[in-house]
């Protein structure tokens, strides 16, 4: 949800930083801005979800038989500490976000070429004949 919630704001900020309205850029440039906006929003998503993902992985791998979830989390956190919750974040960002952004980029290029107009964010109008 973080990625979707921050995507529009990120794209608008990129255009504000570039100093020209998005309509003054061609379709490929606008798609590139969408790609960058999605990548930045994805990094935010990874930063927010990574500590919980690490803890869930540790719980699945290291939970003792009969141990409650709360007790297991306390024990694991005692072993890895706050810093341990962030292990692997740079690799996750490099691998997963680049992969997700590439998929999103290809999807947008396909949609853009089919419609003839770049997707600039906001609601998509669907008509049924």
Quick recap of the structure?
This protein is mainly alpha-helical. It is 74% helix and 0% strand.
Briefly note the structural class of the backbone.
mainly alpha
The rounded Rg comes to 20 Å
Query: Which regions are unreliable across 5 or more consecutive residues at pLDDT < 50?
Result: none
Total count of strands: 0
| Order of SSEs | HHHH
Distance between the termini: 32 Å
Can you give the mean pLDDT?
Answer: 83
| Fraction of helical residues | over 70%
How much of the sequence lies in strands comes to under 5%
Largest sheet: none
- Discrete helix count: 4
* Global geometry: elongated
What descriptors fit this protein?
129 residues; 4 helices; mainly alpha
Characterization of the model:
This protein has four helices and no strands. Helix 2 crosses helix 3 (69-84) and helix 2 (27-62) runs antiparallel to helix 4 (89-115). The chain has 129 residues and is mainly α. The two termini are 32 Å apart. The chain is 74% helix and 0% strand. The mean pLDDT is 83.
């Amino acid at each position: 949800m973080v990625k979707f919630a921050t995507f529009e704001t990120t794209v608008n900020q990129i255009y504000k930083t570039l100093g020209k309205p998005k309509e003054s850029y061609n379709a490929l440039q606008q798609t590139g801005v969408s790609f960058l906006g999605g990548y930045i929003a994805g990094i935010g998503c990874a930063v927010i979800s990574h500590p919980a993902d690490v803890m869930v992985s540790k719980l699945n791998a290291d939970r003792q038989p009969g141990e409650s979830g709360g007790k297991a989390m306390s024990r694991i956190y005692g072993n890895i500490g706050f810093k341990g919750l962030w292990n692997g974040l740079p690799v996750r960002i490099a691998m997963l976000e680049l992969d997700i952004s590439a998929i999103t980029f290809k999807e947008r290029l396909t949609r853009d070429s089919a419609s003839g107009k770049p997707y600039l964010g906001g609601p998509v109008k669907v008509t049924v004949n």
